[in-house]
Design brief:
Elements: H1 8-12, E1 16-18, E2 28-34, E3 46-53, E4 63-72, E5 76-87, E6 91-102, E7 108-120, E8 124-137, E9 145-152, E10 155-163, E11 170-173, E12 177-181, E13 184-195, E14 203-212, E15 240-243, E16 248-251, E17 260-262
Parallel strand pairs: 4-15, 4-16
Antiparallel strand pairs: 1-17, 2-3, 2-7, 4-5, 5-6, 6-14, 7-13, 8-11, 8-12, 8-14, 9-10, 9-13
Length: 271
């Protein structure tokens, strides 16, 4: 099994995304169990897939939304929450945390994508970045870990990785990418969780990750690189809750219900 560091090309093609629901929902999450280490998972290799959204049409300025989720089948479970935040239409954040559990042990690959399709944003120049923080527990195999990439509209940000054989826990920050945004901006946080042969049943990989256009005046949680996350109650005091959806649970179905799409070339944030 090649080291995760050698797999960066998979996501560097990157702007290859899980195709989330096409209607405009503030937050969506899709997960696909793949038979091989591949991103995105080609239809022939999809073992199971599922998706969930919170049904909000757009996220105005000075609002946020938090959506818990839970996916799972006999082989893998994936649970956590995703938070989208829009501060004044100027600073936008997509933060998520998830724990993937290899229930049976052995090699397992889970491709995941979070997306917020419509932030209301102030048109103009913007610089976005992405990050991951995470770690493994319970007996993961050598070189188990995660690869992630943020995407702003059709522009892929840095491909970043955490290899639990090198660092556990691990933390990686990308390189800022500049461009322009319009009245509406979409953020995607894509990731691949990889359990390699030798992983024990019950092994876990936990990974907060996301992409943002940060507000320098908001310090946030130092463990989240300045992102606004659900623990930052002070930061969100003056923001309105866009929705309070019930925790969602969705089985990973045995059919390839989550399709794949390819964005063919890198371009500025505006579509």
């Amino acid at each position: 099994m090649k080291k995760l560091g050698l797999r960066l090309g998979i996501l560097l093609l990157g702007t290859l995304l899980l195709a989330l629901p096409k209607n405009a929902n503030a937050v969506s999450v899709a997960a696909v169990q793949c038979a091989v280490q591949q991103y995105p998972c080609l239809p022939a290799n999809i073992i199971a897939g599922g998706s969930l959204d919170n049904g909000i049409n757009l996220l105005p300025g000075n609002t946020f939304t938090i959506m818990p989720y839970a996916f799972g089948n006999a082989a893998v479970s994936f649970t956590g929450s995703v938070m989208a935040t829009d501060v004044s239409g100027i600073w936008t954040y997509l933060w998520a945390t998830g724990t993937a559990t290899d229930l049976l042990g052995g090699a397992l690959t889970l491709d995941v994508a979070f997306q917020q399709l419509n932030y209301v944003t102030a048109p103009g120049a913007a610089t976005y970045n992405d990050m991951i923080i995470g770690g493994c527990a319970g007996g993961t195999g050598a070189n188990s870990g995660a690869i992630a990439q943020g995407i702003v509209n059709a522009t892929g940000l840095s491909v970043i990785a955490g290899n639990c054989s090198n660092f556990n826990p691990f933390a990686s920050v990308g390189t800022p990418v500049g461009g322009t945004v319009g009245l509406f901006t979409s953020l995607t946080a894509a990731a691949q969780f990889v359990f390699t042969p030798g992983s024990l049943a019950g092994s876990t990989i936990t990974l907060p990750w996301g992409d943002d256009f940060p507000d320098p005046s908001i310090l946030g949680d130092p463990n989240s690189f300045g992102f606004i996350d659900p623990s930052d109650t002070t930061d969100i005091t003056n923001l309105g809750l866009a929705a309070a959806p019930e925790p969602g649970t969705m089985a990973l179905f045995g059919l390839a219900i989550v399709c794949l799409s390819c964005i063919g070339r890198r371009r500025l944030f505006n579509r």
